[in-house]
UniProtKB/TrEMBL annotation:
Protein name: BAX inhibitor (BI)-1/YccA family protein
Lineage summary: Bacteria, Pseudomonadati, Pseudomonadota, Gammaproteobacteria, Enterobacterales
Organism: Escherichia coli
Length: 138
């Protein structure tokens, strides 16, 4: 009986670690995608030229509205809709960030943060450790 309980705890730990590794991979890809979309927005001149321009207010308003709508109906969406919403939110964040900072700085910051999440996820998979636990120290 005791070994079955220990086996259950191990399986739960592995399942939790797999879920967290997946979340960290999605986060890493999202950060790098945001940097790429910021470059595209700046290249195509989609960004707002002034901080008080209507485009900036529309982008920030849409971002806040989507976040509010997402928090209200999170249980009613499937994976495809969640992916589309995620890309839409990344696009809005990229437009806002590209309006506020130079694109090379955005690329460095967002790509570095994405690489940190990716390295942590890969190390967690390699050593079979939950990257969110206190035992995971690099």
């Amino acid at each position: 009986m005791n070994s079955r309980s220990a086996n259950n705890i191990t399986n739960d730990f592995q399942h939790e670690a797999r879920i967290l590794n997946s979340i960290w991979l999605i986060t890493a890809l999202g950060l790098v995608t945001t940097a790429g979309l910021a470059w595209v927005a700046k290249y195509l001149e989609i960004t707002a030229t002034k901080y008080d321009s209507p485009q900036m207010y529309v982008a920030i308003g849409l971002l806040l509205l989507c976040m509010y709508g997402l928090s209200k109906d999170i249980n009613k969406i499937n994976a495809v809709i969640a992916g589309v919403i995620y890309l839409f939110l990344l696009s809005l964040v990229a437009i806002v960030v590209a309006s506020l900072a130079p694109v090379p700085a955005i690329i460095v910051v967002f790509s570095t943060a994405g690489a940190m999440f990716l390295i942590s996820m890969l190390a967690g998979l390699l050593f079979n450790v939950d990257p969110g636990s206190h035992r995971f120290i690099i």
